[in-house]
Structures are given as C-alpha cells and as structure tokens.
Amino acid sequence: MSLANGRHYLAIPGPSVMPDRVLNAMHRAAPNIYEGALHDMVDGIVPDLKWVAGTAQNVAIYVGNGHAAWEAAIANMFSRGDRALVCVTGHFGQGWANAARQMGVDVQVVDFGRQAPVDPARVEEALRADPSIRAVLLTQVDTATTVLNDIAAIRTAIDAAGSDALLAVDAIATLGCDEFHMDRWGVDVLVAASQKGLMVPPGLSFVWFSDRAHERSARADMRTPMWNWTPRAFPKIFHEQFGGTAPTHHLFALREALDMLKEEGLEAVWHRHDTLARTVWAAFDTWGAGNPQIGLNVADPVQRGRSVTAARFGAPHATAIRRWTEQKAGVTLGIGLGMADPATPEYHGFLRVAHMGHVNAHMTLGVLAVIEAAMQALNIPHGQGALAAAAGVVARGA
Q1: How far is 51 from 208, CA to CA, in rounded Å?
Q2: In this structure, are residues 145 and 139 in contact, taking their beta carbons and an 8 Å threshold?
Q3: Closest CA to 240 of 250, 231, 248, 249
Q4: pTM of the full structure
Q5: Which of 58, 157, 292, 360 has the fewest CB atoms within 10 Å, counting from its CB?
Q6: Helix 266-289 vs helix 361-377: angle between axes, to the nearest 10 degrees?
Q7: What CATH fold (topology level) applies to the domain 9-16+265-397?
Q8: Tell me: the pLDDT tens digits for 278-297?
Q9: Contact between residue 345 and residue 250 where contact means Cβ atoms under 8 Å apart
Q10: What CATH class is the domain 31-263?
Q11: What is the CB neighbour count within 10 angstroms for residue 144?
C-alpha cells in the first residue's frame, strides 16, 4: 500500500517548489508585447533583480537554463584562446569549465575535490604564475557537492596576486537562498537561473555584470546576437532585452516571485534557509551516530551551502531510500549527482535533500520524518532522536 496520494513534494535542488502565487500569476492570456503593462512590469523587474544580487550595476535576462547563462557569460568575457582559471568543487564547476573549453577558451582547472572549498592561497599562486589569465570562474555552491565557497576571499586573492582577472561566480544553486553581495564582494560576473531560489519554472537565466566586465566585453570575439549582453542590458527597443519575443509568462511568474522575496526581506530569506539547512544537518548528525555510513558530504558547517544538502547512506541504501520516499510517501529526493559513476555500485550510496526557495519548517521536518520512515521500513540502522534534534533547531530559530 502507498501513502503517496496527495500533494507531492519535490525536494530536489531545482526545479524547486513553485508557490501558488507564482503559478497563478502565469495563468492568464498572452499580453500585448508591443507596449503597455508588460513593458512597465519589466521596467520594475530589472531593479529588483539587481537588488537580489546585491548590485547597482547591470543585468541581462536570457531565455534558457543555467547552462545558457554559462555560455552567455563565457561569450561576453572571452575571445578564443584567452586563458581562464576555473576552480572546481564538484560536478557543476567542472561543467562550466567544459563549456568554456568547448567554446575555445584555454582553461586551467584547479580541482579542490568534492568535499572542500576553494583555497584562496592556491588561486593567488596560480594567478601569480600566469598573469595572462583573463577571468577566474567558480561556483558559490556546487549543487552536486553542496560545497560553499568564500567569494570575498577569492576576490582578495585575485587582488593580492596583482591580477586584473575578472571574478565570475555561478550562484545558480544559491541566489535567493545563501547570502550574496555582488558589489561588496567584488564580483564582476554573476550567473543564476529561475528555477531554484527564485521559485520560477525553468526557462529564464540571468547574467549580472560589472561596468568593468562590460568595458572588457567590447573586445570579446565570441559574442553573437543571441549571447551579447549589451542590447539586453541597454535596449533601444523592448524586444532586445530578450533577443526576440519576450518570455511573457515566465516574466509574470518572476514578478510575483520577486514580490514575495521583497515582502519577506532578503535578510529574513537568508535566515530561513540557514535555519532549515541546520535542521537537516541536525537530523543527519543524529542518524549518523548510530551508523557511520550515514553522514553529510561536507564536514564543516561553515563550508556547506544553505539551499541543498548532499549526504551519504552507503550503497545501495540511498537509492533504496529515494525510491521508497517517492513511491510510498510522495517525496522525491535528489540523486547523488557527480559523487560516483552511475555505472558503479557506489553511485547508490548518495542523495541530496533540497531546502531551497518556497520551503518552510513543516515541509523540511516532513521530509526528514519520511526519510526516517524509509530507514525503518528498509531496516537501515540509524541513530535515534533525529526528529527531536531537528525540531529543536526549528524551535530555536523561529
């Protein structure tokens, strides 16, 4: 018998839970795209996107997912043959490096593994050794490993090396979840997408860029009409902001999502995500006390992202838990992406629990309770008292 009937909960790191307000905002007839209310709405979206990113500089909107944002950023930062330093802390850092390499960038990868953040000293060393590096690329949080990087410290390392390299950050997993200050931290290029902390269906991506990055983009030879961020950020005609027809219903959704973030306030949004993340960590710490195979991928809480948690259960338990929670209880957990080769038995020992976007205490506590039910049903040994420990975090953080 299944207890999965009812409203399903998608606890994966994107697409995240979409609020009813966002879904309802999309449920309307197509608008006039040539003038009027749509144009006025977009005029208000642009400054609010800058607010979310912590910048007073520039933003371009693209019709595409996070991979599209990668390509847009690369096309505007580089000419073919330019050098890039890519700091990898997991699957998506490597993906951004591969995209740059395939587009003609000469990529130097410094891989910090799947459990540790970028070491600023190694960044400084690499930049001192190669003054020709045009940009440093990294993720704030790699969605696969959930390693959190100290962006401000990387900026300091670039400056200490005497390098004029741009700092480019992938915040796809984190924007609207983890604290981010583009201008304060000295970030030149920031990429994000709609389907995670911004609570909008997949289909929009964003590239924020500094005035310095814009000045340098003038000599980038990879820019095409589709990827060129200049007409999108400084349009003479409305449709130039989108490279063609506006993604109208995604924009309605984005307007509503930004309204929700502004109503809550960014500081409160960050606090909520921090509390919910620590709620998940408390449960895993307690389960792991009764079974050393259970644990979090990142040992130091300071180095963990607040939007998603990567964990291990030992193969084949993680896959068994994911299947049980979905089929028996209506909760879908994330796969352990990039933690092991899918063709190997080890792959089935990892999963991820997302707590990003439109998520509250009862949703997070419910996911943890369902995971514990799965472990009981599957006879997986685990420590006792995890739900009480998680509830204690919520009680103290509320």
Answers
A1: 11
A2: no
A3: 231
A4: 0.95
A5: 292
A6: 20
A7: Aspartate Aminotransferase, domain 1 (3.90.1150)
A8: 999 999 999 999 899 999 99
A9: no
A10: alpha beta
A11: 28
